Amino acid sequence: MDADIDDTDLDEKVEQSLDILGRVETEFDAPVFTCSFGKDSNAVLDLADRAGLDLGGQTAAAFMDHDNHFEETWAVKEELEAKYDMTFETYEPESSYEDLVEEHGPLVNQRKPDLCCSTLKSATMGRVIDGHDGWITGYRIAESMGGDEESYDWRENLDFFDQKDEIVRANPIVHWTDEEVWEYHERNDVPYNPLYDEGFDCPGCKQCTLDGDALFAYDSLRRVGDEAGTASD
Q1: Which CATH fold would you assign to the domain 7-202?
Q2: N or C: which terminus of the chain carries fewer CB neighbours within 10 A?
Q3: What does the pLDDT look like over 114-136, one tens digit per residue?
C-alpha cells in the first residue's frame, strides 16, 4: 500500500472533507452515515470522528447486512466500533441469499444479478435512508474509472453534495484517489479489512467477489481454522 503521495494535496483534501462533514449536522435535520467497512467507508468514519459528528446520535450510523459478508468484514466492524466508541445499527434484508437460491436456483447472483442485488441491497438501503434528509457516503469518482461495469458510470458526475431522489448525499472523499485513501489509512492508523492485503480489490459480497471454486476454498479454510480453534488470516 505504499504510495507516492503529494502530502500537501492530500492535506488539502482532508481539510475539504472535514469541512463538508462539519456542515452535515448544521444543514440537515436527520443525517445518516452508511458504512460498508470497506477502505473508503472506514476513511470517512475516521474523518467524521475528527469532524466531531455525533455518530449514532444526531447522525445515525448504519450498516447494511446483505447476508453475504466475509468473516473479516464483521471483525473490522467490531474493531471500528471499539476504536470510535460507537455502535452501528444493522439492517438485514427481508429475504436471505438462501431464500433466493431456494426460489430461483443456485448461483442466482450470477444468473440474475439484478434480482439478487435489488433484493439484498437496494431494497434494504431504501429502508436505511428512509426518514433521513442527508446521507454521508464513501463514494469516489475514481471508482468509475478503469472498470468495465457500467453500473458505476454515474459516479463520474459526483461532487461533494448531490441529490438522490428525496435525499441529499454528502460525499466527503469524492475527489480522493485510491492511493490517497490508503495513505490516509496509514497516517491515521485506520483499521481495514485484512482481505485487501490478500489481493482483494473490494471484499464486499462474498458470493460475487469469489467464483465457485474460490468460494469453496475460502469457506473450507475458515472452517478448518474454526475447528482447530485458530483464526485464519
Answers
A1: Rossmann fold (3.40.50)
A2: C
A3: 787 777 777 888 889 999 999 99
